Structures are given as structure tokens and as C-alpha cells.
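Ticket #4471: structure output looks truncated?

Reporter: J.K.
Steps to reproduce: submitted the chain below (336 residues) through the standard prediction queue, then opened the result file.
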Amino acid sequence: MRLGIALGYWGRGPHPDHLQLVRDAEELGYDSVWTSESWGSDAFTPLTWFAAHTSRIRLGTAIAQMAARSPTTTAMHALTLDHLSGGRVLLGLGLSGPQVVEGWYGRPFPTSPLTATREYVDVVRQVLRREGPVEVDGRFHAHPYRGDDGTGLGKALKPITHPLRADLPILLGAEGPKNIAQTTRIADGWLPLYWSPTRTDVYEASLSDLRDDFMIAPMARATVCDDVGEGLLPVKAMLGFYIGGMGHASRNFHADLMARMGYEEEARRIQELFAEGRREEAVLAVPDAFADEISLVGPRQRIAERLELWRKGPVTDLLVLSPDPHTLRVLAELNS
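Returned output as attached by the reporter:
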């Protein structure tokens, strides 16, 4: 099981310690660094900065939001950074949800998410393969554009720049069972939002036919500390925000996933509290048991024992969410 470092997206501004964390992670043998985006900083620019200051560590987006860019634009970002970094890019993509897609990007959330995802990946792969002009007669992504409001002058094109790798890995962030199953067929890897090494049966049906080289790369917050309860608070804060605030009460993929993992009543309660503006209570309503099983928190020996559970399952890459250099070093030592 390889280790990656996950840095998420910026808050009010760039984190002053992130570059040093990435350089330390590379020195410790971490395989990859991952950035994210929501409605602030983008995922690609920080990776370009890290690429300029490192030599080996792979550069992943977890995730780049599909609604933020046309698929050809995303392919341009990926192939450009892949050249500049010497072939280190891992392209992680995701749909996000209706609130973000329609509220931030000003686009309709696709009525058929699986079809939209499949078409998007098809376009990106055509660009990267550069076998001919990009042509897709898709429901959501048409190249050339043939809509009634167009000029009719669109021309199928292939990229001027020759991509460095036609097989640049594409990973998808997917939460629903059908979406995960499709991911195993059309992508090179899967980026689970929550992964519990003790509840792998939640995904068993969707992962029934995996290729040997398929990546499964969940994120997990990690903290080496003496007080497990205190160490879990950042995990609970993250869960409270995602389950309560990242989606409408009637359509929240994160809450639905928590429900499928055995915490349906608790997920709905978190949503209710968050919607009422009682955010601190929403965070406290996150069960310690759930926060604990999807993270690595506690003294070194406890983390060592729990890390073995992650290594025994199908996870190929553990993406560590931790701003703490000591925690990163301990995990590197335990995983060596």
C-alpha cells in the first residue's frame, strides 16, 4: 500500500507550510501529493508549484470538478502539467453535487450523472490519445457542438500539443453503487470519500470485477496523539460540514453514503442540526465510532494496529490528510 499526502483546498489563503510538507513527504518516500477544489482555490495551480520544487512525487487532483471545466480544458491542464512535471500527473475527477454545480458554476447538474461522467472521460481520453480529432456525439458533451444555438461552424480538432502519455491515469470520485461500478470499467482508479477497512462489504458488489492495476485511493485524516477523543474532533468537524452542509437535505450524496455505512439516523440528525444553524451541535452529533473507523488517530501503537486493517484490504494508496510532519513520519515508518 503506497502513501500519499492529501492537502485539500485552501481556506482563506494558501497554507504557508504546504510546500515544505510536500518536500518532506517526498523525502520520506510518499508516492503522491493530492490537491482539491471546492469554490475557492483550484486543484491544478498548487500542483504546478509543487512540481517545480520536487522531482519524484506524483501529482494528483482529488478532485478536479467536472463542472469547472469542459473536458477538453481539463485534458489541456493535465497534459500541460504532465509535460512540465515529467509524467507525474494523476487526474482525479468528480461531478460534485447540485448545490455546487448550479450554485457556484452556474450550470445544470446532469440529469444522468453516469452518462455525463462517461462522456467526460471519453473526451479526455481522446485528447490524451491524440489518435484523431475529438468527436463525441454525447448527450452532455458534444464535440463539435451541434446545438440549435450554435453557428454550425464547429470543427473537430485534435490537440496541437502531443501529450506526454496517452495512458495518463484517470481516477474518479464516486459514491453511489452504480457510479462506483462504472468507475471500475472506465477509469484507472477510484477515490472513495469515506473508507472503513471494517466495512468493505459496503462496496463489495460494486468492486466485484477489478483489474489488477486498478487504484483504490481513499483519504484518511491521521493524527498521532495521546487523546483519541481530541484527535477525532477535526474528523468530526469535516464530517459535520460535508454531511450537513455539502448538499441539499433532499439530495446529499455524502449523507446518503454515511447512511449506507450503517449510520442513517445519525446522518439525518446531522443534516437537521446543520440546516437549523446549529453547526457545533451537528459536529458533536457525528458518532465517534464513525469518525474513528475512517481515520487513523491515537498513539503510535494504536495507529500501527489499525494501519494493518487498511493494508489487508483492496486499498492500493492511502491518502493521508495531516498537516503534522511528525504524523507523516510515523506513518512512513509504519508502512515501510
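Triage note (M.O.): checked the attachment and the full C-alpha cell line is present. The first strand starts at residue 2 and ends at 8.
Status: closed, working as intended.
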